[in-house]
Design brief:
By secondary structure, this protein is mainly β. It has a single domain, classed as TolB, C-terminal domain (Neuraminidase). It has three helices and 27 strands. The strands form seven sheets. The protein has a five-stranded mixed β-sheet with strand order 1-24-23-22-21, with no helix packed on it. A four-stranded antiparallel β-sheet has the order 2-27-26-25, with no helix packed on it. Strands 3-4-5-6 form a four-stranded antiparallel β-sheet, with no helix packed on it. A hairpin with a 5-residue loop joins β15 and β16. The chain is globular and about 60 Å long.
Length: about 425
């Protein structure tokens, strides 16, 4: 475990990195997160107030001078080895030891190469990775990626969101151990979500976007626009996973039993607090009145999309419905495009004053924020948008595309196009 004040990591400044040979740009990466670009903002709405800096913390490179190729996620195996796994969007998973600020900076090695399987254009690519809670003994790693559908059929279902299992042994993942857990076919390469995380209950949670079809989020027969909960190790002949006890609708006609919550636009990253509450961040639509919003993922809850964007009503349902209120939100305003990215609770030791705060960010603004979950929430818009006490900045991460954590609870922030990974350290 880290000491109260660990050896400092090298504080490398933000710098330009080579992007030769990359087929994507920061603008294209925005759609990965499910936001619709609106670069020309109307002048009628004021810019959202800028959050103040959280004291005593700064962003530093987790591995100074180590360059990754479009990092998108970071995971650990809870095996006491200090080994971390970095997912790169084009399909590589790399293993690299945690750097504690002393001695030579570790260098990554390739754990698994999925580039031949991954469709890396548009909002595609390798999307997330997660190690099984018993990874130390079973070596199971789960990956989420977008692939081409080899048999698209007459409906033009040309793509599929794939959740697959691999077994890791001796620092390598065996490609022959691949097992498809869940595949969701779709007609486009947009809004697939694809976030995967194991919860405190050791079940696998999966965020699935609405596939740019708003009606799917409210459709109980569809997996789109949902957060799913499955047991990936309890597969049978009919499917590669089991339905855990406690799911809201395990055997209700017309409702998919995998669904944990519905009414989401594009759930990308999520995490739990100490009380076991699950939170995610939803990306907004377009225009100066649009919202980016943090929401608690409630058991069996209707989270509002496409009727609600945070507290902003977009349209009214045909019949009255009760929606899970947003926990926190901020308005885009006239200050340019935004794209909210979840998000998890900080549990580390380096910045003790940050413990228990929910950390998330914005891809387009290139910033990471924190809020105190104890002081936000409910249906009061004023309380949800308190800037200063609740909404604080932790620093800049260009093209912030996702975050992960290590076994000690320290967070790692992926600067996608820049090719760097940042972490938090006490400020000087």
């Amino acid at each position: 475990m880290l000491n109260a004040r660990p050896p400092r990591l090298a504080a490398a400044p933000l710098r330009a990195r080579s992007s030769a040979g990359r087929s994507t740009t920061a603008m294209v990466r925005l759609v990965l997160l499910g936001a619709v670009l609106a670069l020309v903002a109307l002048p009628s709405a004021p810019a959202a107030a800028a959050p103040t800096q959280f004291p005593g913390v700064e962003m530093v490179e987790a591995w100074p001078d180590v360059e990754f190729s479009e990092p998108i996620d970071v995971a650990h195996g809870a095996d006491g080895t200090d080994m971390l796994y970095v997912a790169e969007q084009k399909g590589l998973i790399k293993a690299i030891r945690k750097y504690r600020g002393i001695g030579a900076v570790p260098r990554p090695t390739v754990l698994l190469d999925l580039r031949a399987k991954v469709y890396a254009r548009s909002q595609g690519g390798l999307l997330a990775i997660a190690c099984h809670p018993r990874f130390k003994t079973n070596g199971l790693m789960y990956v989420s990626y977008l692939a081409k559908n080899p048999k698209p059929g007459p409906q033009g279902l040309a793509f599929k969101l794939v959740i697959a299992e691999y077994r890791v042994r001796g620092g390598k993942a065996d490609p022959k151990s691949a097992r498809s857990v869940l595949e969701i076919v779709k007609s486009n390469a947009q809004h697939q979500g694809g976030g995967i995380r194991f919860g405190p209950d050791k079940m696998l949670y999966i965020g699935v976007g609405d596939a740019r079809d708003e009606d799917t989020a409210q459709n109980p027969r569809s997996l789109f626009g949902k957060v799913l909960r499955i047991d990936p190790t309890a597969g049978n002949r009919s499917r590669g996973y089991g339905i855990p006890k406690g799911n809201p609708w395990p055997s209700v006609a017309g409702v998919r039993p995998e669904i944990w919550g519905f009414g989401f636009r594009n759930p990308w990253r999520f995490g739990w607090d100490a009380q076991g509450r699950l939170f995610t961040v939803q990306p907004g639509t377009k225009g100066p009145e649009s919202r980016e919003w943090v929401t608690q993922v409630k058991y069996g809850g209707n989270h509002g999309w496409p009727y609600m964007e945070g507290t902003r009503r977009l349209k009214s349902p045909a019949k009255p419905k009760t929606f899970v209120p947003s926990t926190f939100e901020y308005v885009r305003g006239s200050g340019g495009a935004t794209a909210g990215v979840g998000g998890t609770v900080y549990r580390g030791d380096r910045v003790k004053t940050l413990r228990g705060k929910y950390v998330f960010g914005d891809y387009m603004r290139g910033e990471v924020y924190c809020i105190d979950l104890a002081t936000v929430g409910g249906s009061d818009p004023a309380k949800q948008r308190v800037v200063g006490r609740n909404h604080r900045s932790l620093g800049g991460v260009p093209e912030f595309a996702g975050l992960g954590e290590d076994e000690q609870g320290e967070l790692y922030f992926c600067a996608n196009e820049m090719g760097a990974i940042f972490t938090l350290a006490p400020s000087r």
